[in-house]
Amino acid sequence: MEQEAYEDNSLVLAAEDFELDEFERYHYFTTQDRRCIAKLRAHGPVLLKGARGCGKSALMIEASRGLYPRDNSSGAIGIYISLRHLGLLQSEGSKYIELFCNLVVSELYSQLDLQGGETDIDSVPELQQLITQIAVDNGKRIVLLFDDAAHIGREASLSDFFDVFRTLSNNLISCKASIYPGVTKFGVRFDVYNDATVVDVNRSETADDFPHLFQEILDRRFSESLRDEKFGRHLPKITVCKLLGMAVLGNMRSFIYSCNELITSLNGHEGVVSISHISRAFKQLSNNYFWPLLEEVEPKLGVYQPMVDPANQIAHILLEKAGEKGERSAIILREIGQRLNKPLEILEYVGFIARKEVSRAMKSRGRGTRYILNLCNLTEYLDQTRINSIITDKFLQFHEESVEFHRGSDLYKLELPEPLEGHDLDILDKPITILRKSNAYPYGLTEYMLSLLAGHNFDDLEALVNASDEDLLAIENIGPQILKRIRSTVNQAIWM
Ligand SMILES: Nc1ncnc2c1ncn2[C@@H]1O[C@H](COP(=O)(O)OP(=O)(O)OP(=O)(O)O)[C@@H](O)[C@H]1O
Ligand SMILES: [Mg+2]
Questions:
Q1: Which of 108, 308, 315, 399 is deepest in the core (most CB within 10 A)?
Q2: DSSP H helical segments within 49-169, as ranges?
Q3: Given pLDDT bands bounded at 50, 70 and 90, which one contains residue 8?
Q4: Tens-place pLDDT, residues 439-476
Q5: Which of 217, 231, 289, 224 is nearest to 257 (CA)?
Q6: Ligand 1, residues 32, 253, 259: which to mutate, most atoms within 8 A of Cβ?
Q7: Dihedral of CA 360/364/365/366: which sign?
Q8: Residue 128 CB: number of other CB atoms within 10 A?
Q9: SS3 198
Q10: Helix (H) / strand (E) containing 25
């Protein structure tokens, strides 16, 4: 296999792709995270809500690591279940329930190392009975951690999921699920705020341990290429970590990308990290990661696909005005925000903006929602299209004002298209060549790997994702390593 110029694991972009024994080494959790993890382990339903890559899976995996069987001494069983299964995305009603039950049963049996598991369970009451029996047999309550339960634009099966989520719970079974901010349809029988505790994974940049968290991650992942000597007195490591963390709105995956981009920007340079290295890294991230991401998610949004265009326009309007004033915070009049809700959620989902306050008084009268903007995207709109120490100091000390968008603004005039009712996911029909290593898929498939797959009738992603491990391993020169790479790239393409 070709050599990669990155540190080991620097490009593992999903927490579930770590081997369990490596997970601990690369992950660090703050006091706030610990509180969230405690809720995930405790009894009672919890929805873990946050943008792509903010660290939801990491929190769920960490929660399961403190429960039986991963921790023998725990009084509760914890089963982490990824719902990234194509069948679940494509089915509804009783078909969905049947697939869902099969998945839960097979995870329970394999994680608890139980015999059997071939039982024909295809309804929630039967499933509940089986899980309750396992709890009784083990003398422990059971926590089910459903990862990737809900995606924007894939709402068909959601009411089925939330129905199960609610009805499966009893005094021995509790359900937890990770969801995205844009997911608002929970089905008719699920009242989110009554039926579950919603935990927001939004990380507060004003929290004392915010810089420390990002320094820990940097030290764990990039101990060689961003070692202490790479940082000088004027721009100490902790400040760089805070700046990078703030720039990507506290998003874990984007932070890892930003470290990789900073390393590229240093490009073997002997001296220490400077503002211009960071500025260059931000612009690269903006062009090679964030803007392409907005395009990349389009075929994954189903009914909301037409909202990507207006999301793009909104981003430009916000960035232009904020950049001109040298600010990174924007208040949008509530009435405008409500109308543009979907595209704004998409921008939040891809990490362009983060919602900070729902109702804030505006100078121009009225109330609005305050968002902060991603600094990478903002950099190009700033004076001289770069960041300097004056502006970074202002941001680092939170000495900032917000630009405001009221009725006279361009946002007010923006028209929205209709959602495409009943539209399926375009991503599944894309050719497998989109998985080629690129800005969108830095951990993607090499030409060699694609050549191995060629001629095996994988016309589109759907065919590839449906191929079994055995099918793929039967292809000449595909071994476990390449199989893992194919799976993780396909997963990224469809789910991330
Ligand atoms: N607390 C943490 N410490 C160190 N690294 C972390 C932490 N949380 C997340 N990461 C890393 O950040 C990346 C994204 O995290 P994770 O996969 O948990 O995000 P996610 O919210 O589940 O994303 P998605 O929405 O795509 O499912 C992963 O590479 C993960 O290892
Ligand atoms: Mg995840």
A1: 315
A2: 56-65, 86-90, 93-111, 124-138, 158-168
A3: low
A4: 777 778 999 999 999 989 898 999 998 899 999 999 99
A5: 289
A6: 253
A7: negative
A8: 18
A9: strand
A10: helix 20-26
Strand partners, 173: 142
For the question of whether the overall pTM of this predicted structure is more than 0.90, the answer is yes
User: In which residue are the tokens 């759907």 written?
Assistant: 462
Residue 191: CB partners within 8 Å, gap ≥ 6? none
Cβ 200 vs Cβ 358: under 8 Å: no
340-344 long-range contacts, CB within 8 A, separation 24+: 340/310, 340/314, 340/411, 340/414, 340/416, 342/182, 342/304, 342/307, 342/416, 342/419, 343/307, 343/308, 343/310, 343/311, 343/314, 343/416, 344/311, 344/314, 344/371
Nearest CA to ligand 1 atom 6: 27
> Any idea of the CA torsion for 25, 225, 250, 51, to the nearest 10 degrees?
-70
Q: Does domain 430-495 have CATH number 1.10.150?
A: yes
15-200: which CATH number, 3.90.45.10, 3.30.450.20, 3.50.50.60, 3.40.50.300? 3.40.50.300
Q: φ, ψ for residue 377 (rounded to 5)? A: -65, -35
Cα angle 225, 354, 51; round to 5: 70
Averaged over 34-63, what is the pLDDT? 95
Strand, helix or coil for residue 119: coil
Q: How far is the CA of 180 from the centre of ligand 2 (A)?
A: 10
Cα(264) to centroid(ligand 2), Å: 26
Closest CA to 222 of 261, 279, 249: 261
Determine the Cα–Cα distance for residues 221 and 8; give it in Å rounded to an integer: 8
Q: Whose CA is nearest to atom 31 of ligand 1?
A: 15
Q: Residue 111 — left, alpha, or beta (φ > 0 → left; ψ -120 to 50 → alpha)? A: alpha
CATH of 296-413 among 1.10.3480, 3.40.50, 1.10.10, 1.10.3470 = 1.10.10
